[in-house]
Write a structure and sequence with these properties.
The chain is α+β, with helices and mostly antiparallel strands. The protein has 3 helices and 5 strands. Helix content is about 30%, strand content about 25%. β2 and β3 form a beta hairpin. The longest helix has 20 residues.
Length: about 140
């Protein structure tokens, strides 16, 4: 389920005093550390824990990659656990809204758009929030149970 809201970006007061990740790998590493703490697993074993964790890391990769490739880079990043759900918010500097891959009228395979559809399918909820000063945030909710 996708939603569009007009709102402010995530509150800087709620963000840790660190820079947002520059790569999808850095974003995955931050989510991995959070999941290790939440699930009580040791370093390196969280990725093998469950399909649910693998899905969470895949969605992290896709949203981070989209922000880097199409959104002028990641401008804010927040990953937190709320009621056994990973809530992942990634902001970027682009006003362009994400879009799903559309079938080609010529039958040629479409280029891109698959990651967004995949993220929307794996998350229980995805919200896109436009920022009044430009850019947007994408928030995905991924149940961990």
């Amino acid at each position: 389920m996708e939603q569009l809201r007009e709102d402010q970006p995530p509150s800087p007061a709620r963000e840790r005093a660190i820079l947002p990740p520059c790569t999808a790998a850095e974003a995955r590493e931050r989510v991995t550390r959070l999941l290790e703490l939440h699930l009580g697993t040791t370093a390196g074993r969280v990725a093998d824990a469950t399909v649910t964790v693998a899905d969470a890391l895949l969605v992290t990769s896709e949203l981070a990659t989209n922000a880097i490739r199409h959104g002028k880079g990641i401008t804010a990043f927040q990953a937190r656990i709320h009621r056994d759900c990973l809530v992942l918010t990634i902001a970027d500097g682009s006003d362009e809204m994400p879009r799903r891959c559309e079938p080609s009228l010529t039958g040629a395979p479409a280029l891109g758009g698959y990651g967004w559809a995949l993220a929307c399918r794996l998350a229980s909820r995805v919200t896109v929030t436009r920022h009044s000063g430009g850019g947007k945030s994408v928030t995905a909710h991924l149940p961990l149970m």
